[in-house]
Amino acid sequence: SRLVQMVQPTAQSENVRVALLALRVLYNFSFDEALRGQLVESGMVQLLVAHLRSPPFRHIVLRLLYHFSMDDRCRSLMAYQRDGMVMLLQLVVHFPEARVGKDLVALVVNLATHQRAAEVMVGS
């Protein structure tokens, strides 16, 4: 979709505020199954895994990845992002609060239903 093509590059902006706004727009797009598929096909998973390293982006990135993890094909793509899988587990283990965030738990549970993703998690 032209909308995805217009907004996605902005999510890579050097300006954190601009990138966050773009990610929020993409999150809204992700409620639509067709747009979510286009986001996945456009390589968005790699960008989100890269943004996961940066604390200001984590909350919105976890929500986007959760939406993506509802799709089998996307779970498969995410399973091959070993760095991202390890990072998600590290976030669970070292969560700063007594209770792990719902978005993070939901994402990890969804990913654990994919055989390759579960193997990567257990192996890390």
Automatic annotation (TrEMBL):
<dbReference type="GO" id="GO:0019894">
    <property type="term" value="F:kinesin binding"/>
</dbReference>
<protein>
    <submittedName>
        <fullName>Uncharacterized protein</fullName>
    </submittedName>
</protein>
<dbReference type="GO" id="GO:0035869">
    <property type="term" value="C:ciliary transition zone"/>
</dbReference>
<dbReference type="GO" id="GO:0044782">
    <property type="term" value="P:cilium organization"/>
</dbReference>
<dbReference type="Pfam" id="PF05804">
    <property type="entry name" value="KAP"/>
</dbReference>
<dbReference type="GO" id="GO:0007018">
    <property type="term" value="P:microtubule-based movement"/>
</dbReference>
<dbReference type="InterPro" id="IPR016024">
    <property type="entry name" value="ARM-type_fold"/>
</dbReference>
<dbReference type="GO" id="GO:0016939">
    <property type="term" value="C:kinesin II complex"/>
</dbReference>
<dbReference type="InterPro" id="IPR008658">
    <property type="entry name" value="KAP3"/>
</dbReference>
<dbReference type="GO" id="GO:0005930">
    <property type="term" value="C:axoneme"/>
</dbReference>
<dbReference type="InterPro" id="IPR011989">
    <property type="entry name" value="ARM-like"/>
</dbReference>
